[in-house]
Amino acid sequence: MLAYLDHQASTPCDPAVLAAMAPWWSEHPANPSSRGHRPGLTAAAAVERARGQVAAALGGEPGWVVFTSGATEANNLALKGVAEAALERGEARRTLVSLATEHRAVLDPLRYLERHGFPLRLLPVDGGGLVALEALEAALTPDVLLLSVMAANNEIGVLQPIAAIARLCRRHGVLLHVDAAQAAGHIPLAMAELGVDLLSLSGHKVYGPKGVGALLVRPGLPLAAQIHGGGQEAGRRAGTVAVPLVVGLGEALERAVADREARAARLGALRDQLWSALEAIGGISRNGAAAPRLAHNLNVTVAGVDGAALHRLVRRSIAVSSGSACSQGSPSHVLAALGRSRAEAAASIRFGLGRGTTADEIELATTAVRDAVAQLRP
Ligand SMILES: *Cc1c(COP(=O)(O)O)cnc(C)c1O
User: Fold this and answer.
1) Which CATH architecture has domain 3-11+260-376?
2) Protein residues with CB under 6 Å of any ligand 1 atom
3) How does the average pLDDT of the chain come out, rounded?
4) For this structure, is 169 an active site residue?
5) Does domain 15-258 have CATH number 3.40.640.10?
6) Whose CA is closest to 218, among 238, 195, 201, 245?
7) What pTM did the predictor assign?
8) Per residue in 94-144, pLDDT tens?
């Protein structure tokens, strides 16, 4: 048996989500932009229903939702779209601010913009992976256009204080973008209430299909389209809307919100069980603050073992990762930001529990690490 414990990299698509998507591949073939016939209107209605589901799950309005191919594209649209719109209107504010522990789908577009005239300020985090609000506020100088902060970290699961950060942004006239790929459907997140301007999410991190996501944009916020063509999504993202995928995204988010509390309670208990068992082995420490964090994430560093050897042994029985699935090969920049050395980062394991995770799988994971440690420590 191989236990899949890498739900931060991707979640299985819920069978009920698959069932909701099924009719939209062949049975209903029309393009939702074909408003001149009934099948087109039927497809458009399905897209609008999904838009409503996405908005409801994130505490926004349907008109704020721009469907994209995933969170990577949503982040690119948010960051480049805001920067380009600022350029077009001759805005004096140019500086972009973010955290050292952001996903590469935020850091790479920011570095791209830095090469194109938008100075970048990356803030450090404390040993627990959280940003200090005083340091953050000090960084929001009058030249700052936008701050991008993730709601939940994909490697270490810690939650940044988005409500307090949003208040600081308001006070200093700075736009706030939140990468919520790991948070949407997992923790309560109400965009309007929080005062977030732009929010990115992804289908496959929340038991939906891969290849779809969304950017929610506060109304009236100037955003330059990054993909030009047929003017879909109110001119903000051209290209035929992927009807089956957006139907799946809407369904997945609605279902994730519905079982969020029960799922977090169950997975939190399993995660705590896993941590107690690993802690008892000795020489294993947790990465990221104990709270606030996602209930289904645990990231640990195993002292006194070679990271490559550790992963070679544990991968026989558990599917886990040593960092982000998206930065293969290079050591984790997130663990480095917490002060971990290269060797420590390599000897780290990210456990991502999910809806299907069982107590037996947690037992298997514990045994896998215990056996590997016994074999590798002198
Ligand atoms: C997975 C992930 C992304 C990228 O999402 P895709 O939909 O796979 O492009 C971006 N940010 C975070 C925090 C993620 O976890």
Assistant:
1) Alpha-Beta Complex (3.90)
2) 70-72, 103, 105, 150, 154, 179, 181-182, 202, 205, 213
3) 96
4) no
5) yes
6) 195
7) 0.97
8) 999 999 999 999 999 999 999 999 999 999 999 999 999 999 999 999 999
